[in-house]
């Protein structure tokens, strides 16, 4: 188990290291002069000021030197300053990251709460009308763009019915964005749970348990549920990454003050230090969550725990 | 299920279409996709108005009457815009999946065929890229290249490469371990013959399914970027972009929000159903 986790942690650290390299190279991939582009919107920037920015970003050095400078600052917790406003990037991101994580976790909770029981029910009634109906709903749910679902929920619950606020950052404001993100992912969980449960139910040991005449509920609880949920747990890491990606869109619909909304603004404003910080933060969060999920998986699956 | 699965692959072609149409999801999916292709090809003939013409009718006319789906804030005919949008949407799906598929398949097959350090480098980099998630790759690309529909499509295409490479690698690896493949090596087949005659046709069914399902993912991702303003720019009648514009008139003209959304959902559903249908009709295990 420790070996399994060690490999995963090493792989995660490697991914983050590659990200730091890509993030440094990112600014050089911009067609044209990034400093000119960044300041294109503000009039009256003198050539001297532009040179000053170029120096402060280290863009007048060679790429390897730039990378070392970037890493040196990074290890001191310094991600640079935003182009607009000159605030420390790390501070700007840390201010909003909790909002995004809160949204992603709430959405994950909703997705599992709705998706797993539906998948379980469909598997239990495999081939019946219930199963077919549930799976039609699931494929429709997967096909629905979450930005559209968000707009529809906003229209009905906030504007037509007036039950929930349109935007803001209170607890009630969390309901609609979390539902938007959660519902579209619930369908994925439902499909996965169903196929995994059906797979387990056809295993010899489950068939034997049924043949022994054990009550169905007992077999399901003791033999099917745990094994059938393992692939669902594995998928949670990937799903969380999806949620973080989906949050970028959903935050913009509901004006939820998270890193996703910040990232889109940064792209519009060509605020490269902020974009770099966002990419780095995003991959650290995704890698960290993936490792936590792997650890959970290792605890749940005796085949890995005892190896 | 018979034991010689790889033999009845290419030869089973005529029965394949029959099986596809017999599964409800395959038949419905195929019908939706064909309808979309029809709309995209004949948009000029089908559309009652020029999609970009402002003042084709009054502003914010509700659906019905002269304008089947109503008009938007500039008095443009929504039905015509949706029809022309189908062309853009299908093109987005095709180009993005084309990029992911060709590069992904090349990477996957080379890794499975060459093995050794080439395999290690290719597949480890794929793993790293995969853990970045498609959204982050696409967003980084747009951040570098700047917002435009073309850049959004490239971004979505590139973002999909790791997934296609992994899937193709797994499928190709299974083939290289089969006895016919080893026999072919012993018989002196060169690398070109091994890859093109044995590997490619046998990974193709899997990749066709993945690509069909991938069209829906790509369309959703590109529409999402356009919705954020990072993809299609005005006056394109791209559906995601149209949805974004509808937000300002959500109370006054809710149809501007519902209709492009339904268009995207139906398109994505069509490709999802077709992909599901193809999987059951191409997969020898599910075929039984």
How would you describe what is shown here?
The complex is a heterodimer of chains A (307) and B (288). Helix content of chain A is 79%, strand content 0%. Chain A is an all-alpha fold. Chain A is built from 13 helices and no strands. Chain B is mostly helical and 288 residues long. Helix content of chain B is 75%, strand content 0%. Chain B contains 13 helices and no strands. Chain B has helices spanning 8-11, 13-22, 24-41, 43-46, 78-114, 116-132, 134-145, 149-176, 179-186, 191-227, 239-246, 255-282, 284-287. The radius of gyration of chain B is 22 Å and the shape is elongated. The model of chain B is unreliable at 1-10 (pLDDT under 50). The interface between A and B is large, with 47 and 44 residues.
Low-confidence stretches of chain A: none
- General form of chain B: elongated
* Total beta-strand segments of chain A: 0
Total helical segments of chain B: 13
- Helix content estimate of chain A: over 70%
Provide the residue-averaged pLDDT of chain A: 85
Query: First CA to last CA of chain B: what distance?
Result: 6 Å
Over all CA atoms, what is the radius of gyration of chain A?
24 Å
